[in-house]
Amino acid sequence: NVDDCWAGYRMANGSIHADPTTFPSGMKAIADYAHSKGLRFGLYSDAGNKTCAGRPGSLGYETIDADTYAGWGVDYLKYDNCNNDGISPLERYPVMQKALNDSGRHIFFSLCEWGVDDPATWAGAVGNSWRTTPDIKDNWDSMILRAVLNEPLWPYATHYGWNDPDMLEVGNGGMTTTEYMTHFSLWCLMKAPLLVGCDIENMSA
User: Fold this and answer.
1) Which partner from 19, 77, 115, 187 sits 20 to 30 angstroms from 154, CA to CA?
2) Burial 136-171 (b: 16+ CB within 10 A, else e)
3) Out of 65, 80, 138, 166, which one is annotated catalytic?
4) Quick check: is 46 catalytic?
5) The pTM is what?
6) Helix, strand, coil fractions of the chain, as percent rounded to 5
């Protein structure tokens, strides 16, 4: 999943384009490369005017962005919650849901509003997963706190929708091997998405 800061600018017609300095070949080329390696390709956007890092957001551009992502071959969309003009996520997120559904491509929709508005209680009708916690850090206390926050929400996890206490930190170096094994096991027990959060080029077989 390519996180925040990939987006560069919008054209006059509203279409989004990658930062030409960081991604001179564009996002479709990266998606094609990921697919050639047998991987799925994920991308980030935000249900606000700007992303958390100040790049162009998708609020008001949901349809054109969803169609663009589909054309690029995106498989997964992480949809953040910054710079949202105070509009309820229950109003903003379903707009992107419809746009993705109408795009002609199956794109996994990951809502990321950090658990602020109790997404476990409503997001199952909108997306495929929903963040239930603030961002995780690569240390034991941060990991355990997210497990504690996420655990009571187990009744809302189903076979088609998942509580998301954030990505796995396994392999990043901030915890011991035993702590990483605990981290991975807890996420499995909670039916949490198992999103690799380390550098896959340095993963052992």
Assistant:
1) 77
2) bebebebbebbbeebeebeebbeeebbbbbbbbbbb
3) 80
4) no
5) 0.95
6) 35, 15, 50
Letter string b/e over residues 65-74, b meaning 16 or more CB atoms within 10 A of that residue's CB: bbbbbbebbb
- Kindly tell me if the per-residue pLDDT of 121 is higher than 70: yes
For 45, residues 6+ apart whose C-beta sits below 8 A from its C-beta are 7, 51, 57, 58, 65, 77, 78, 79, 80, 96
Q: Is 135 a catalytic residue?
A: yes
Q: How does pLDDT run across 173-200, given as a tens digit for each residue?
A: 999 999 999 999 999 999 999 999 999 8
Which parts of the chain are beta strand (E)?
A: 7-10, 16-18, 42-46, 76-80, 108-111, 129-131, 162-164
Give the 3-state secondary structure of residue 133.
coil
Q: How far apart are CA 133 and CA 89, in angstroms?
A: 15
Using CA atoms in the order 133, 127, 110, 71, what is the torsion angle rounded to 10 degrees?
-170
